[in-house]
Write a structure and sequence with these properties.
By secondary structure, the chain is of the alpha/beta class. The protein has a six-stranded mixed sheet.
Amino acid sequence: MIEVPVYNQTGQEVTKFSVDENLLGGKLRPALLKQALVMYHANKRQGTVQTKGRADVEGSTKKLYAQKHTGNARRGNIRTNVMKGGGMAFAKRPRDFRQDMPLRQRRLARNNAILSKILSNNIKLVDNLAVATPPKTKAVAGMLKALQVDRTVLIATDGLDHNFHMAARNLAKASIKPTAEINAFDILNVRTLIMTPSALDGVLKTAKPGRAAAGN
C-alpha cells in the first residue's frame, strides 16, 4: 500500500489516502505507456494533407525530345518533378493514422499513468475541489500556488462541476476534465495531476489487479 497525502485548498496536509498499487498495475509498464502515447498521438493526426503528383498537374504526356543525339540530358514529359510546374516525386495523399487498443488495455494504461504520478510525487490529492459562486479564477490560481504547482497540471474533477470549470478554464497551464474522461495521454502530458480522494477511489473501484501484479 502507498500512503498519499491529502491536502486542503490552502496547501495544508489534512490526512492520508491509502492506494493499492496492484490495482494500478503493480509496477510501471513503460512499454504499455509508450504504446498508449503513440496511439493517442496518432489519433490526433488529421491525415488530410495532399499534394499534386505527376498525374495531377496539367501538361502533355509526350516526351519533350529524343532520348539520344541531342546533347541534352535525358528528359521525360513536362510533368516531371524536376521541371517547374511539375508534380511532386512522392506526392502526399490523405490517409488514416488511427490506431486502436482494447478497452481493458487503455484502462490499464490510464491506471498505470496514475501510478507513475504517485511514485514520482507528482499527484496532489485535494479534499475538496469546489469554489464559491460566482466562480473566480483567482480562487483556483491561489489553490495551485498553495499546492506549489507552477507547471502544467491536469485537474480531474469528480463528475461535472460547472462552477469549478468556469473558474479554472482561463488558466494557461491547467486543463480540467471529469475523471471518467481522462486517459493516459492526458495524465502523462502534464507535470502534475490533481484529484480528490473520492475521484481516485472511483478509479480504484473499477480497476482489477493484473496477472503480473498478482505475481502469476
